[in-house]
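Review form for a predicted model. The reviewer records the input and the model, then writes brief findings.
Reviewer: anonymous (R2)
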Amino acid sequence: MILKDEFALITGASLGIGREMAKELARRQINTLLVALDGPELKETEKFISEHYETRVDSLAADLTDPESAQRIYDWCKSNNYKVSILINNAGFGEGGAFEAIPLERYFKMIDLNNKAYIALIHLFLPEMKKRKHGHIMNTSSMEATLPLPYKAVYTGTKNFIYAYSLALNEEIRRFGVKISILCPGPVLTNEGGLKRIQSQGNKAKLILMMPDVVARVAIRNMLGGMLIINPGKMNWWVTKVAKLIPTRLKMRIMERIFRVYTKA
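Model under review:
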């Protein structure tokens, strides 16, 4: 149970799923702390929540690919006496194309944001959750965590890492009253780049396409209910189940044919 003086901290909170999760938490009268890149969207999200919901809200602009950003976020919370009992690691990005066509620096930045930032924030905020004997951590992984995609090899690798890391860490900490949830959405319409990748797949991608507000509602409801693995959408759930039944070599050959279009998108 989250107390009235406690907060949920959401990264990537100015756009897409992160923004919608912040709104959903505020709708449930949970105080929110919004962290995202500096830009008008961050303050607009904070203003929207403050005007529409009777909860406390604050925001901090931070680039989570900066190795010092996690400590700065933690220090900001401590200096303002913000007790974080919900940590939602949502910030991340992906990119598709032939492996060698994407600059190495871009891959390293992806790993910094999709993996290192998650570890750093949990490392800082977890001890206090354990002391209070309650808390929720939700890490945004992907449907692709268990379905590696050619032409998105590094991205799916980062999401697979989050999936495995979260499963293992959950077993370490669950006896302390802290629960981890792994959010594994399929295609979600969050930005122009994602829209182009979805369009490159044609009508088949639309079958599992979801909107951010729908994913957010499912994610928050199930996280607060203590669900470990959250697969929004019945179609996405079936795809992951069926994929496990297909021999790995055959499955990867099929995936390569389907996602070869990313080299042209």
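Findings: The longest helix spans residues 104-132.
Further findings: The mean pLDDT is 91.
Recommendation: see findings above.
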